[in-house]
Amino acid sequence: MTPNSSAPAPVSRPRRLGWGFLVIALVVAGVGWWSWRGGAGDEEVSNEPPALAEDPKRALGEAPSKSAFGSGAALERRSSPGTEDMRVSVLSPEQRERLERRELWAERLERAKRTLESYVSATRYPPQSRSIREHPDQVVLAEPERTRPLSREHADVQLRLKQDRVFVVRDEAVHFFVSCEDSQRQPRPCQVLSASAHEAEHMPGAGAVPAVPVAFTDDGAGGDALAGDGIFTGRFQPSKQGFPLYSGTLRVDVRVRSDKAEGTAFLDILYTPSPPAAFTGKVREVLADGSLGLYLGINVRKAGRYVVAGRIDDEGGEPFAHVSFNEELKEGPQEVKLTVFGKLVLDEVPTFPLKLRDVEGFLLKESGDPDRELMTTMRGYVHTTNEYPPASFSPAEWVSEERRRYLDEYTRDVDEAQRMLDQTFDEEKRP
To answer: Between 342 and which of 126, 144, 291, 382 could a Cys-Cys bridge form, CB atoms 3.0 to 4.6 Å apart?
Structure first.
């Protein structure tokens, strides 16, 4: 009996039809009519199993909306469980196996297509020239701010800790800010009882240099914005306060009191006493191959791999792009190229002229802690570009050997899944 038969198999009849057998015949006929109604409904009878004919996505070779991938019982539930179980029960083992294989490859095809589309979208632009929306933590230079309980015993009192920079080079100074608040972020009385700077405990050889005191005040001087506002400010200059030759992480411990509650916290910086290279401040721009290149002058004292990053704003100061450089540099005068990719310009449509700002860089070390030697950051706007019409930029997507290799691999996955899915349809057509 085929899956879509609307009547039961023929029944041999005796020469004389008794009342008992007549009743049995009527029951069998009723069951056959009920099966026909459940399998085909009021629609035209299909050559496909009912579970396939009801879903146009499957008929087109598309993935079903729900699947038990690899479970051996993948059927989409559109009708009541009882009716669906009845439909499955009328499938032969071969038909059920074919159905499960079709859903398996439909699911794999859908997943392969999503992977390919996601990769194409994510790699339209080169890694060194991306929309600033992809780097929300890089819109401005790092100025960490966090809250934490004053102590385990006084979790209702929160310490707010902030610093105006993390990376400190040569004679630069860093400002720390400490205040107290309650769980509703309302100010509480606050006082920094003591503070000291020392080598971070995790640094090799920590403790060789003695700790030095750091003063925190709320008097409107020495970097403190407003006297008596409950925000205590501490200024720390490593080169002048005990660490002129130290390179690595320095930690400032603070002890704070709020009313009768007391607790401790710490703030860290990364310090480089002698930068491995220095920006000259000169920038030249070149429009080539449909993209805009900004070449920054740099004097390299120590050869190696350098990482440089900057932010691009549009004419009105709206953040537009994050641009970077990651290559080997030799000693002596060099140039670092920051690329504003053409397709990124055409897609985002920033208003010209563009403005480069907050450029930072470091020498990446192969081993050790810290993993870098810092350059002095160029803060604020560094360069303003010329104005260029949209026709100056290329709409082409980024191309590289690596991207092409991945695209080929993901495309093969899609083709393989499509081929196997088509094969299940071909098997369905065979007698």
So the answer is: 291
Is residue 100 a contact partner of residue 49, using CB atoms and an 8 Å limit?
no
Tens-digit pLDDT profile for residues 91-127: 788 888 888 888 999 999 999 999 999 999 999 999 9
3-state DSSP percent of the chain in helix, strand and coil, to 5: 25, 30, 40
Please indicate, yes or no, whether the overall pTM of this predicted structure exceeds 0.70: yes
Distance, CA of 268 to chain centre: 26
Instruction: Catalogue the E-assigned strands of 86-163.
Output: 129-131, 145-149, 158-163
- Cα separation, 255 vs 150, in Å, equals 9
3-state secondary structure of 293: strand
* d(C-alpha 28, C-alpha 30), whole Å: 5
Q: Are the C-beta atoms of residues 268 and 250 closer than 8 Å to each other?
A: yes
| Ranges of the chain whose pLDDT falls below 50 | 1-79
pLDDT for 82: 52
Tokens at 125, concatenated? 């632009």
CA distance 148 to 160: 7
